[in-house]
What we know:
171 residues, alpha/beta, Rossmann fold, 8 helices, 16% strand
Amino acid sequence: MKKIALIGSGGAGKSTLARQLGQKLNIEVYHLDALLWKPNWTPTSKEEQIKVQNELVNKDQWIIDGNYNGTMDIRLNAADTIILVDINRVICLYRVFKRMIQYRGKSRPDMAEGVNERLDFNFLKWVWDYPKTKKPIVFKKLEQLPDDKKVIIFKSPREVRHFLEKVKAEF
């Protein structure tokens, strides 16, 4: 596990898992939300998203946290390990609301400075719809990966905790 792509719904716990895994494995973590959003929620262009991710995946080691389905293949093809955090959408929504309250008017640790947390109906809808709209696309991409890729799918917070305990014991 030297090149790890973390994907999943908003609120699934990708960023938290990325930070914890990065500490345990001593691998640099890159949060795509921090790299691809400019202040005041201004998105970067698709060209810049591709450029940034191509630069990241050329490094010797990395953990990259984020979805960005339009550029996900860059990370999936370069990763040796792909982790899909496939947590129930009710838990995801709860976590999104929780962080909206916790970081209201401030930037989260996994976001760029000036990208302040806010209540956003479109994002909430995206999280709610993720199992029907995005997850099938993600699973199709995962099925098409070569056999030398390690794909890990977590269905619960408990599975994530057990994985981190195992990683801590091994490394």
